């Protein structure tokens, strides 16, 4: 008996009962409008004392409630109430945010109509049955109460033994009411994940948000890899060269230290820009992060490897997003040449600015012998391909028969930056 009482009157049951009472309160404005409609068609009927009239008013109220629940803001309010009072299992998620799609609004409308409909019935039963059951339970103990009941009791029930059954009958009424409230609350809790849960459009929107967040992370990872990785490679080689000639050629060592200073200072500025994007939650579409092709001269002067640079066309006319991505592609290509190319061999860089396309070609001599695998490497070329793909372009990279590693990229100039996925 105790488990049954716990299910009927436990904390979860009481919260669900309260949730139904809230639904009954939300129904009242619609119900009062419904009584006006019923009164217009049956002016001689007292709606508040006639059960058929009350049911007719309820039938008028529910469609009005359903229509108002089609508003997008109805779903967050319903979800908040359901989470607080319905006692849902943690593995039954509900949707967050307003209902934007038609399917979400229709589902929320169905939930709200079910909530206020059941809530109106349970609220009416609570208001009517609780005082009546209490009076029935008090009949054997209150003569004045018995005298008021006698005129309304059928003669067949006007017997002394009826008074003996009155307390159990009143208690049974209250238990029946609790059972109805528990069943209605369980029905609402079971329907909540279906009617207030995420729709396919909600799941798609959530997947798009996760993809956008992942794209920002990948974007920032590429920026850090290209700027910081290039700087560290250049600084490492320049510091090693300065250490080897420190005693024999102090002037070269001084120039190497100056290049290290300039490289680190520039990289710190780029790192601050990337971290600023991280604090802001990403960057706007099409907004370039860091320098563009206008800063190519400074990059070539401090990259740590001799570069033979030729340009066909004016790099300054390249649109900002394309210019920023092209700069990073060249920077990563120079980093790869610095780390994996033949020491001391010049790198040839050609930039072709056409009417509709930007071409980048970077050739670096390969060292003699078989290639040496570098643990943890291999992300630079992937990042270059991703940058070109964002602009609708293509890249090619690999060794040629003449012992040269070629990196080539073609970037359209009239294509907007795609969404970063």
From TrEMBL:
Its EC number is 2.7.13.3. GO terms for molecular function: kinase activity. Pfam families: HisKA_3. The chain crosses the membrane at residues 20-42, 54-74, 110-141. InterPro entries: HATPase_C_sf (IPR036890), Sensor_HK_TwoCompSys (IPR050482), Sig_transdc_His_kin_sub3_dim/P (IPR011712). The keyword Cell cycle does not apply. CDD domains: HATPase_UhpB-NarQ-NarX-like (cd16917). It catalyses: ATP + protein L-histidine = ADP + protein N-phospho-L-histidine. Keywords: ATP-binding, Kinase, Membrane, Nucleotide-binding, Phosphoprotein, Transferase, Transmembrane, Transmembrane helix, Two-component regulatory system. The keyword Disulfide bond does not apply. It comes from the Bacteria. Residues 217-281 form the Signal transduction histidine kinase subgroup 3 dimerisation and phosphoacceptor domain. This is histidine kinase.
């Amino acid at each position: 008996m105790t488990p049954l009482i716990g299910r009927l009157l436990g904390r979860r049951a009481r919260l669900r009962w309260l949730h139904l009472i809230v639904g009954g309160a939300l129904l009242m404005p619609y119900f009062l409008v419904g009584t006006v409609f019923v009164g217009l068609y049956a002016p001689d009927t007292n709606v508040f004392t006639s059960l058929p009239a009350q049911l007719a008013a309820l039938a008028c109220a529910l469609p009005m409630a359903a229509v108002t629940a089609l508003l997008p803001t109805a779903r967050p309010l319903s979800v908040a109430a359901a989470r607080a009072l319905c006692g849902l299992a943690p593995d039954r998620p509900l949707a967050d945010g307003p209902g934007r799609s038609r399917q979400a609004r229709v589902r929320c409308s169905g939930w709200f109509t079910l909530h206020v409909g059941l809530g109106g019935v349970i609220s009416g039963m609570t208001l009517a049955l609780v005082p009546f059951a209490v009076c029935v339970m008090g009949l054997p103990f209150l003569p004045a109460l018995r005298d008021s009941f006698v005129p309304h009791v059928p003669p067949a029930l006007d017997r002394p033994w009826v008074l003996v059954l009155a307390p159990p009958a009143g208690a049974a009424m209250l238990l029946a009411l609790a059972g109805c409230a528990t069943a209605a609350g369980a029905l609402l809790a079971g329907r909540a994940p279906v009617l207030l849960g995420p729709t396919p459009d909600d799941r798609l929107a959530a997947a798009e948000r996760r993809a956008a967040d992942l794209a920002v992370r990948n974007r920032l990872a590429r920026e850090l890899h290209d700027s910081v990785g290039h700087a560290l490679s250049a600084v490492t080689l320049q510091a090693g060269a300065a250490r080897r000639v420190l005693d024999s050629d102090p002037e070269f060592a001084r120039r190497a230290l100056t290049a290290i200073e300039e490289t680190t200072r520039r990289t710190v500025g780029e790192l601050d820009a990337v971290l600023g994007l991280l604090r802001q939650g990403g960057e706007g579409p099409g907004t370039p992060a860091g320098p563009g092709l206008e800063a190519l001269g400074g990059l070539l002067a401090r990259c740590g490897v001799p570069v033979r640079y030729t340009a066909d066309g004016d790099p300054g006319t390249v649109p900002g997003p394309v210019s920023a991505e092209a700069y990073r592609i060249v920077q990563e290509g120079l980093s790869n040449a610095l780390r994996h190319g033949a020491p001391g061999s010049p790198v040839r860089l050609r930039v072709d600015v056409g009417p509709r396309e930007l071409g980048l070609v970077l050739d670096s001599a390969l060292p003699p012998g078989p290639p040496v695998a570098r643990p943890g490497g291999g992300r630079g070329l992937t990042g270059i391909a991703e940058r070109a793909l964002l602009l609708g372009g293509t890249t090619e990279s690999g060794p040629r028969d003449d012992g040269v590693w070629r990196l080539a990229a073609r970037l359209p100039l009239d294509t907007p930056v795609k969404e970063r996925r």
